[in-house]
Known about the structure:
Distance between the termini: 85 Å
Number of strands: 25
Largest sheet: 7 strands, antiparallel
Mean pLDDT: 84
Structural class: alpha+beta
Radius of gyration: 27 Å
Amino acid sequence: MKRHKKIISLMAVGAVSVLLLIAICHCIVVWNAASKTYDNVEAIPHNKVGLLLATSPITPGGAHNFYFDNRIKAADELYKAGKIDFIIASGGDYRQSQKNGCDKPGAIRDSLVARGIPENRIILDYEETTMRNSIYKARQIFELDSVTLISQKYHNERAIFLAERCNINAVGYNAEPSPIRKNRIKNTLREYLARVKMFGSILFAGTPSFSAQTPNDDLITSTTLPVEIVDTCGLRIYYPNYSKIDLVCGEMPSKDDESVIMFAEAAFTGELLDEFSHKNISSSHVSNGEYYSGFLCKRNRGVFTYYNGEPHFVYQGGFLKVPWPKYMESALRESAHYGGCGFAQEMMIHEGKEIPHTRSASNTNEFRALCMIDGKLVVADSKGRVKFGDFIKTLLQVGATEALYLDMGPGWNYSWYRDANGNAVEIHSTPTKYATNWITFYK
């Protein structure tokens, strides 16, 4: 009897230990993924690549798989919202796919293309069948240091933990679960065990190695978008991949000029003249290497110049007490000397700090700025009407070290950029004939 009680006690201790282990593994994964998964496409940050964690379009029993449909829908939402530029379709050894007739990456590709996503934005990953392998390959072969994971929330949480072990900064976009309650319960129970297994593989399994190379493994690194777009903190930030910048005056850049990848109205325009005049552009400016004089504008306490392949921001400091500071004039003259471009505008941020500005902080409008963020020259738009002071604070929040106002308002806010297919995508729809000058980025 005593021996029987001892066995029961050991079994009870063992069962409690197993349950405790499952609970600990589960809690670690959930805690680690806190605030890193998203249900709202507007809130999730931009990543160049989305990794769609594969599942079959049909269940092992031959039934329709809603998990597959919902992951496809989630990937489609991300891509069309500009939150990802490429989609890796993971999941399955190619030879095994041919044998059992279930080509998971191929099914993902076909479903995404049917929704209008370009095929050249989809990378097929044929490398075994596990999420672990997909993530290791994302780091080792695709050389990703950030990624958006696309799956159901429970799956994303575990994938984030694995990605971070591979030094990948990961977020997850949560696809909807299956509408069938039995399927949800089954997958939840299986996930508890999968989390324990994951920790076991981290502790005891070796690093996966990859021998199969897909034909488009290098597509992500070899393809550069003309303009990359990031939506964050109420801003839409445009990152032009330019080789040249100029200030175009008089005639708006044409969509037929395929060398142009983006432009935006730059300096203020004076009187509403039907005929163009350089003297109707605020302050001195440089276009195509030529220096021109414009009208004095006291708001203009900063200068942007571009020459010898480098952007420069010059700030006069303090409030304007002289007609035109000599060193701002000198900056423009220097740009003209080197065949560059330049213009003056309202400075908002210089060397990482908000500087005094003449426009009221409570002035409410849509705003646009030419900025330096993470060492890159970008154009940042507010998403809707905001207070000027809040716009500046948001620019500082996203890391802007320089910010110069770009002319905005009905008509003046019209601009466009090139998408991945070379098409001109309009930002605001109606231009004004009174616009006079545009900072223009060339491929």
